Hints:
This protein is an alpha/beta fold and 391 residues long.
Amino acid sequence: xxxxxxxxxxxxxxxFCHVLGWVIxxxxxxxxxxxxxxxxxxxRLMAPRLSRPETSxxxxxxxxxxxxxxxxxxxxxxxxxxxxYPAPVQFVFGxxxxxxxxCHIVEQLKNSHPGYDIELVCDTARHGSNAxxxxxxxxxxxxxxxxxxxxxxxxxxxxxxxxxxxxxxxxPGVGIVSCVYxxxxxxxAWSRLAAMAVSYNFxxxxxxxxGFGLAAPCFGxxxxxSRETLNRIGGFERFANLLADDYEIxxxxxxxxxxxAYPPLIxxxxxxxxxxxxxxxxxxxxxxxxxxxxxxxxxxxxxTHALPLGLIxxxxxxxxxxxxxxxxxxxxARLFLKARIDHIVGVQAGPxxxxxxxxxxxxxxxxxxxxxxxxxxxxARLRVGRDGAMS
Length: 391
């Protein structure tokens, strides 16, 4: 009797695992369909649009807060300067310390671009726990023009970046313009692995969120707005203690009744991670930031980790021929998304063979991001409250 009971228990346990496996596999297949949809939405987001008759373009101040001289900084800043824009452009770079290595690169650029309106602001003043926003607050004293374009230091842009961004800003109802971006590794294998997360996880998720109307995010890659709009939302000072300053600035503009616009443009984010620990710290900060500002959306992104979920589901289902076929379908969808993104962006963030490894790592970091509030940023360990404030 005892042996029969044990046998029945094992059968019941086996049956439960099979059912759970098929549920997970079905969820993963849904994630595969999401990937195909994300590829289509990214294609639509990048489609050329009818342009309005060109009016006199405004003079612009471009703000680039800097910290350190990461690999590729000179190339990123050079791309910012070399713009095909038919009106005056002021470039303001900012650092907190006079001995910041980024100062040397800015001075080199000033020498190689004579006649450009370039200013370097060095100010040690801190206005809150967000060092980048403190930098921006200090830089505002040098601003000359009414139209502002803020961009992170690790973003490279095409020559028509300002022209397209300003054109989007002049559309009716637009209060702020932002741009999606892809990853480009600049410091070896770990940076390429980080770039793959940007291109093959962030970019399709951003396109899907925008395309489905589920989100209207604002990214640090580009934030273009008028000085009047900035003043109306409280200036940069309002965001001095918030981790997700770019998202919060976009949300504040939307709360004023204006919308976020996205020109058909993909910028390049230079990834510079040189080791596993640096990659994990960066991506955990990113994931916990998303969890803080959009907890439901973050939990819902569980389904986007289709490849590791498919592997778990197929394993629990016993790797039957049907389960293997389901996993193969998910893998094909993932590879299709990668190929489509590489085609649209024009550069491959990483090889196809590394994609399963990258997806397993992303899933592990997603699970790690579901708890904890500590993040590492610029060498400091910070805690993020439920309101997004850092301490």
